[in-house]
Every structure is written in C-alpha cells, then in structure tokens.
Amino acid sequence: MRPHLVSWFDGGGRGTGGGSCEVLALLHDAAKQQLLVAGNDGVIRVFAVPSYELLGAHKGHSEAVTCLALDGNFVFSGSEDTSVGVWNSVSASYKGTRLKSLEGHSRAVTAVAVLPDSGVVL
C-alpha cells in the first residue's frame, strides 16, 4: 500500500468529534491496530485502524498532552501539566485513570521515550 493522507477529523462522528481539539501527538500501535491521538484538551483518544472508530479515551492530564510513547502494554504521555502519565494499553474500555503519574519536572514535558526492555522512561 502506498502512503496516503486520510482526512477523518471532519466532526461527523469521526476523529475528535468536533474539531475543537488541536492535535499535538499521534501514536500508531501496529500490533493492536490502533491510533492514539492527544491534544490540547488533555485527553488521549484511542481509535481502531482502519475504521477510525473511537474505542475510548484516557483522561487524567489537566493540561495539553504533548507527546506519546509506547512500550509493551503501557502508553506514556507527556503533558504541559509537567507530568508523565502511565496508562494501560490493553484496557477493554480505555476509560481507566492513570496507572501512575511521574512527577518532578518543573516545566512542560514535550518529549518522552522508553528504553526497550528496561522500563527506563526518558
């Protein structure tokens, strides 16, 4: 398949459901065939690929979510609220609260990475 652009933030029940959220981070989980979309509303939405059906959302950040990373069964999110959230990526409902909040930054977290097989979050 050739790479192509898909327009699905049309406000008609697809995408963020109205287009009022600025998208700041995307993460494709090929193993689960899901797309995670995060933005300035502090919510991480989980969509099925290729249907783009909204499966659910992770809520817990008080400010914009600026970055996402995946490691096994966990999603990590950095936010302007100065925290890194740890979420379960195998949840059936995607409505759970954060498993953990990593605190200690004095400014917005704009990048997050996980060293494979070590659990070290950068």
From TrEMBL:
Tell me the InterPro entries matching this sequence.
Answer: WD40/YVTN_repeat-like_dom_sf (IPR015943), WD40_repeat_dom_sf (IPR036322), WD40_rpt (IPR001680)
UniProt WD repeat ranges: 58-88
SMART domains xrefs: WD40 (SM00320)
Does the keyword Iron belong to this entry?
no
User: Organism's domain of life?
Assistant: Eukaryota
* Keyword vocabulary terms for this entry: Repeat, WD repeat
The cross-references to PROSITE patterns, in alphabetical order and at most eight, read: WD_REPEATS_2 (PS50082), WD_REPEATS_REGION (PS50294)
What is the name listed in the Swiss-Prot or TrEMBL entry for this protein? Uncharacterized protein
Query: Organism, per UniProt?
Result: Prasinoderma singulare
